[in-house]
Amino acid sequence: MTELLNFFQQNIQMIYIVILMIFVGVEIIGHVPAVLHTPLMSGANAIHGVVIIGAILVMLHMDPTNKLGLAIGFVAVVLGTLNVVGGFVVTDRMLDMFKTKK
């Protein structure tokens, strides 16, 4: 329990920033018109490629005996990849709606 309290005391500013980002994100997304949700979300999903690169870099520097850390990193890579691919699929389907019919 003391370790948890020490962690919170050492990282209190970072915790405040994360909480503030959550509220700002909810407000921003809440004020976006419904017409723009699909293009914004597909673009945001494509940006999640950073998650994939970050997870790979963390896994490269991790101790090979840390099986739990490697498993969590692998799950992060898989979910990040699914998110990126899904973003591009949504964007492609959205752009197909604007093509002229032959």
Structural overview:
The protein has 102 residues and is mainly α. It has two domains: 1-31; 35-102. It is built from five helices and no strands. The longest helix is centred in the C-terminal third of the chain and has 30 residues, at 67-96. The protein starts with a helix and ends in a 6-residue tail after the last helix. The mean pLDDT is 84.
Summary tags:
102 residues, single chain, 5 helices, mainly alpha
Write the layout of secondary structure elements.
Layout: H1 2-10, H2 12-30, H3 37-47, H4 49-60, H5 67-96
Low-confidence stretches: none
Strand content: under 5%
Shape: flat
Structural category: mainly alpha
The number of helical runs is 5
Counting DSSP E segments of at least 2 residues, the number of strands comes to: 0
Radius of gyration of CA atoms, rounded to a whole number: 19 Å
Number of separate structural domains: 2
CA(first)-CA(last) distance = 67 Å
**Oligomeric organization of the protein chains:** single chain
Arithmetic mean of pLDDT = 84
Helix share, percent: over 70%
Helix-strand topology string: HHHHH
Largest sheet: none
Summarize the entry for a quick read.
The protein has 102 residues and is mostly helical. It has helices at residues 2-10, 12-30, 37-47, 49-60, 67-96.
